[in-house]
Input
Amino acid sequence: MRATHNPYNPGAGVPPRELAGRDGLIEQARVAIVRAKAGRPAKSTIMLGLRGVGKTVLLNTFEAIAEDNGCQTALLEIDPDKPLAQQLAPHLQHVLHRLDRLKKAGADLQKAFGSLQAFAAMFKATVNDVDFSLASPSATGDLIIDLTDLLVAIGEAAKKRDTAVVLLIDEIQYIQKGDLSALIMALHKISQRQLPLLMFGGGLPQLAKLAGDAKSYAERLFDYPPIGPLDAAAARLALTGPAAREDVTYTADALDYLVEQTGGYPFFLQVWGAHCWDATAKSPISLADAKKASATALAALDEGIFKVRLARLTERQKAYARAIAEFGAEPVHSSDVAEKLGLSLSQAAPIRDELIKKGMAYSPERGLIGFTVPKFDEFLRRAMPAKKPGKAPKPQ
Ligand SMILES: Nc1ncnc2c1ncn2[C@@H]1O[C@H](COP(=O)(O)OP(=O)(O)OP(=O)(O)O)[C@@H](O)[C@H]1O
Ligand SMILES: [Mg+2]
Output
């Protein structure tokens, strides 16, 4: 069928033509946003899920809902190499400018701008056009205290203007150690004061860096809806919805096959859908078309995504990843992986940590390790067929 009319959108953060199976989550977010805007208590949310399940698309959707409801939004994707303060400051400045436009600057907004200025100076963040004549309470250099002061000042300014501030933070697992605790402590204060400031986060399913007080606050402060593959009905809709708009349908057996092949993972549904489109001469898309498409889709994933990810690994990381893959798709005990490699737990632990740091693997709970990209285990078994036992990599 005509490539120019292919209705599928495989790609990071690219909105699908049919956002299937997420109505409940979107409604929950809408309720929280409307409540916050009306000055009612509302809970922040952290969406945790593997690569390609649609976290970014949801954050963008929530941003649009917040804007439609008259909230002030800041959406940022965390850069693992920068402190949180430097990343947040310019966004918060933007929010303050927008609050400023809602009503003539009052003392509260001056205070918030002053806090931002002190915060930016203390944490070496770049913000533009700061008016240095503003009253500036000095920052302490303790991120917990300074971020709390700043967010409280912003929340109070938003409250006075009958609006809410909605922070949307993507790749939240990359927030540096300590910074995440500070953010949580600051949001805890916001919630105690019932200020209209909400956060939606998205990230890989591990927030193991949290410790102590921050952890216990975080457990109560946020909802953590797991974002996983779509159920069969939603997966079918993700395929049929976009096609229907181009007057194209699928046969029932083709759909069953595609749901099974993709495991209902949103990114894979887009990839497989796009390949079905290319493999089909005319509607309906049949089982034979779907099978052809599945072969080309897998080859494209191998070339385009999996090989690139594998190439980013050192030899010992590859060996570790291959050992995880031996156990299948679900997270496995790192002790089993170490044993498979003929290494002690302490020899294997640094390699495991490297894989986590590179975003290749995650630890859903202590002692477990799994891949962040679905189907990566299958790829590794294809790309690196099992060798005869006996040769373990030397620890470095
Ligand atoms: N509910 C959905 N229905 C259909 N397609 C979806 C859905 N959610 C996301 N997609 C598609 O899946 C792909 C991945 O979405 P997105 O980039 O939001 O995932 P992600 O979870 O943020 O992934 P990553 O962890 O790699 O950033 C995109 O092509 C998007 O169009
Ligand atoms: Mg994303």
In short: The first helix runs from residue 23 to 37. Residues 23-223 form a domain with the Rossmann fold fold (CATH 3.40.50.300). The chain is about 55% helix and 10% strand.
